[in-house]
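Pasting as-is:
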Amino acid sequence: MIFIQPSIDPVIFSLGILEVRWYSLSYIIAFVFGSILIKKINTASYNLITDRQIDSFFIWSVTGVIIGGRIGYVLFYQTELFISDPLYMFQIWKGGMSFHGGLLGMIISIYFYCKKYNLSFFYLSDLIAIVAPIGLFFGRIANFINTELYGRVTDFKLAIIYPTIDEKPRHPSQLYEALFEGLILFIILFLYFKKNSKTYYIGRISALFLILYSFFRFFIEYLREPDFQLGLYFNHLSMGQILCFPLIIFGILIYYRK
C-alpha cells in the first residue's frame, strides 16, 4: 500500500516576522514535558537533585542542545560550506541541526552545571537519557512534516510518496526513527528504570541510551536517503552511521565501568 505524504505547512502560524514552526514546537514540548518527567523520576529514584536545580538546568540544556546541534550540523554535514562562508554557522534560519552535535552540547552543559553545583554528572545524565527519546520522537515527526531526512526509494509494500520530492515510493525513515529512537527507546529505558529505580548503578541508563540509540540509528540509516552533499563513505556508510561508532564504544565502556 502506497501512501501520499499529507500536505502540512511547516509554519503553524505567524505574527509578522515571528513564525512558530512544528520543528520549534517539538523542542518546546520536549523540554517542558521532559523537565516535568525528570522531577517525577528523580523523586522515585535516589533524589539527588532538587526541583529548583532541575528548573535552573532548563536554560543550560536548551542552550547546549541548540548551540551544539547547530555547530555539529555545520561541521559534520556542511564542512565545505562553512569553510567558504564561516558566517553560515550563525544563519540558523536556513535550518540544520545535528543530533550528535546536540548530544555533545548537552553533555558539556551537564558537566559544567554539575561541577558548579557539585552534583553527580551521571545521575543527571541518567535522568535526561530517560526523557531524551521524547524529544527525538517529536523531532522526527517534525522532520516528516518538513519533508526532511526522507527515506530511500523502495519497492516495499508499505511506502510513502513525497510529492515535493518526486513521485517515487520511499521509506518513511523519519517515522521509523520516531518509532525506534523515540517511542521504543523511551519504553525500554523507562521500564528499566521502573524495575531498578532505587538499585540501578548510576550511569548505566546513560550507557544504555548511547548504545541503543546508536544501534537503532545505524540500521535505519540504511533506509534513509544519504545526505546529497556528502553521499556515502566507503560506498556503504553515511555520516550519521560513522558518528554512531564512538557513541557505542563510550556506551559500552560506561556500562561496564558502572
